[in-house]
Amino acid sequence: MTIPLLGRIDAYPTHKISGFPARHGNPLLPGATFTNGGVNFSVSSENATSISLVLFKRGQREPYAELPLPDTFRTGHIWSITVYDLDNLDDLEYGFRADGPDPNCSPDRILSDPYAKLVSGREVWGQEPDWSDPYQHRSRLMFHDFHWGDDTPPRIPRDQLIIYEAHVRGFTRHPSSGVSAPGTYAGLREKIPYLKSIGVNALELMPIFEFDEFENSRINEETGERLYNFWGYSTVSFYAPKAGYAASGRYGMAGDELKALVRECHANGIEVILDVVFNHTAEGNHEGPTISFKGLDNDVWYMMTPEGYYYNFSGTGNTMNCNHPVVREFVLDCLRYWVVEYHIDGFRFDLAAIMTRDVDGTPLPNPPLLQELAYDPLLRGCILIAEAWDAAGLYEVGSFPNYHRWSEWNGRYRDTVRRFVKGDPGMAGEMATRYVGSPDMYAGRSPAASINFITAHDGFTLHDLVSYNDKHNEANGEANRDGGNDNNSWNCGAEGPTDDPEIDALRRRQMKNLLTLLMTSQGIPMILAGDERARTQWGNNNAYCHDSELSWVDWSEGDLPEEIAGFTSRLTRLRAAHPAVHALEHPTGREVVPGLPEISWHGVAAYSPDWSQESRLLAVMRCAPAADGDVDCVYVASNAHWEAREVELPWLPEGALWRVAADTFAAAPDDVFPIGEEPVLGDQRAIKVNARSTVVLCSRIS
């Protein structure tokens, strides 16, 4: 493909460099950009004393041209050139060669463009690369010609969001998935009807920025299994979608395939959130590879100690210098690009506490990057979610600098609900606080600041949380030393698989208890993909390296997965139907109607909660105005004790009746009733809450 010259003075070359017509480029256009008659290449480097543009034909080991940029093509620290007469741009690969006094800035290396929109070298997942090739991750051009039609972001109100965390490859790679292109964006797109069926409306994708699945890849000597960088938390290129996740990746169409997924999600009322990793890169420490940033400006992009070593607040070897002005601008530009070009609806930031650190690692009270992200006009419609801790011990859950914009993964919610449901003593009061949006942590913010979750990619699955007391990570090849030990799990009486029907029944009930508390809590709930199908990792709580059935969602039909999936589907609809459980304001106790407060706490006796060390009962009634003018009332009683409890029910106005919405002790499908089909409770004064079970009652007051 050749771009014709247009009738503009600045569209004509002024130089001939290595046989190519060229001119001083536009330094305001970072990366590679189609311009009048040519391609504008621009790269920033403070350390470089010279820069060359290196051009390859796709699949060729050696470059076919190298264009040294004249010093006059430098504006400040930005080098830019517009090159004309570049044939077949579809097959063009490019990079930069930098030379300077910093040892990392060596002309022996070819560097990827930090702003590359596509990267080749890992277009087919798991295909062994040519390790002798010195330029492993090659920058490519992207043609922005995708037709979005009338695509409009769903803009789902925060109180109605239900997030579903999924791995693109792991979601459909299993042979049972039934999709035409397993393990790809296209395969995930085919599962959108399933996502709708279980009631989720926000798809949070684990990292899809280009990464190298062969980073730290190795063979498990005991099993012979190839272990990969499966999760992808080690970015190679921040602007490029992972080509190995695309059925069309080898043809340079990863961007279009991802956009088609986003467009289809939006058409079905599902937002798309990206899990982004701006705390470190794939370049590692001084022993790691030089891919891009190190060779351009090592001490700009990374936090360096006074002795010249890499700070390691990420636990991966390096730490991005997020509050350096150059890096701040890069992060902002990157997120704007994904919102504008890919119509992304939000971002979850991995180890986001690092983004609060100054250039020397000191935590800042008002980090400029977070403030700019919060107020940026292009990002104003996006949800911003922080994993508010890092690997060096900085824990900011509840204190993350938020500017009334940021939500947080609420790790305290996760730990509390796990401990309460398994029956730990002294958890009733803490559970009550977490249940209503953690007002002790988010008093000045909406309950939507709390992303409530029980499980995530890192840790046990829901099934394993109730099936294992201890982690079983031997398959990782690290002698079971990796992964967390503070799981707050309980195996219900046997470690791992069992044929005991009582243990099996208890595990099913415990999974339902956890899901019920999650879906009736104030805040934004998040489900881990496959939890609604009782997916197991056989006790592995750190499956970061497994591209196998250990990590894939199993779509096989079966009694257990179908039962939990049906329960989840009905439960999400219960949440959506009752504004009382997802109110966007913290409860104050004000009366909704005379004698009926918006929240009241109870115990075995109505209006007499028991917050003692021995209490294992949480009982609460919440009331809120409904859209039709009625008052919506929901009563939840969760009994984590091993004995049943007879509980007295709170007062309702004359004519109002309690109906049974859910009972985790009941057999499916009567564990959750369809909306509008909830049976009237026989005894309106009291109800039996069975051992280790949860009951949800509802009522409408006209």
UniProtKB/TrEMBL annotation:
The record's GO molecular-function terms, alphabetically, read:
amylo-alpha-1,6-glucosidase activity; isoamylase activity
For the keyword S-adenosyl-L-methionine, the answer is no
Q: Which InterPro entries match?
A: GH, GH13_cat_dom, Glyco_hydro_13_N, Glyco_hydro_b, Glycogen_debranch_GlgX, Ig-like_fold, Ig_E-set, ISOA1-3-like_C
Q: What is a biological process (GO) this protein takes part in?
A: glycogen catabolic process
Q: Which SUPFAM superfamilies match?
A: (Trans)glycosidases (SSF51445), E set domains (SSF81296), Glycosyl hydrolase domain (SSF51011)
Q: Does the keyword Hydrolase apply?
A: yes
Q: Note down the stretches annotated as region Disordered.
A: 473-502
- Cite the entry's keywords alphabetically: Glycosidase, Hydrolase, Transit peptide
Task: Give residue ranges for domain Glycosyl hydrolase family 13 catalytic.
Answer: 165-575
Q: Which SMART domains would you find in this protein's record?
A: Aamy (SM00642)
Q: Name one Pfam family in it.
A: ISOA1-3_C
Question: What segments bear the compositional bias annotation Basic and acidic residues?
Answer: 473-484
Which branch of life, at top level?
Bacteria
- Family of this protein: Belongs to the glycosyl hydrolase 13 family.
This one is known as Glycogen debranching enzyme GlgX
The organism named in the record is Spongiactinospora rosea
Please spell out the taxonomic lineage of the organism that makes this protein: Bacteria, Bacillati, Actinomycetota, Actinomycetes, Streptosporangiales
